[in-house]
Design brief:
mainly alpha, Cytochrome Bc1 Complex, Chain D, domain 2, two-stranded antiparallel sheet, 9 helices, 4 strands, 45% helix
Length: 275
Amino acid sequence: MIKRTALSFAVAFVLGAALAAPVMAAEGTPHPPRNKWSFAGPFGTFDRAQLQRGFKVYREVCSVCHSIELLTFRNLSEPGGPGYSAAQAATVAAEFKIPDIDDSGQPTERPGRPADAFPKPFANDAQARNTHGAVPPDMSVLAKARTYERGFPWFLLDMVTQFQEHGPDYIVALMHGYKEKPADFQLPEAAYYNEYFPGHVIKMKAPLTDGQVTYDDGSPATVDQYSKDIAAFLVWAAEPHMEQRKRIGLQVMLFLIVLSGLLYFTKKKVWSAVH
């Protein structure tokens, strides 16, 4: 009876997953292409140069509209991050104006400090909405929040391969997804067509163009390079301690393997007289 129930559950699960895949295809939203990332997999690490390029793209392009409120300037110099020194992080912080209160209780602004969070580009949501027609989302955890379902049978394979790069793949695809709308597509006013955005209607115009940002390391000044660099930076912003997490996870797995061996041989020793 138990075997029959388990089999029925397995069949229902597989059929349900198989039927879910065509639903996504019917929406007309293609899956973002896969990209190669240095931080992918259980042994992946961030490319420091790529994180610094991504931060440059954020500062010169994205920070005009989007915030990263959950990050502080000192995170830039912490282990596992872009590799800036404490002095460099302090210099970056000083370039930003931070709202504060002076000794008399009046609102004022001061240069940023390493302990400060990155400031919002707008005073409030109403100002952002009046400027852009919508409030630009905070980018702190954008690479984790913006994801997509790969459908059956890929999600089963993802559990084995530990594929977790849905977010950066989606961000890269979104940057390339601005196209001319189909003739029969109704596009609202002050909106843009993007083939990878759900519903294809997005308020943000294409933010990146070739030659927009100049890299100091000679990397190509192209939309393709910009999109990959900012996606990698946003992955780090969403999980700045990812490398430490992976390292601890590996240490725990090795410990459990050794512990399992010790327990096995201890059991054999304790029960040897019985056998």
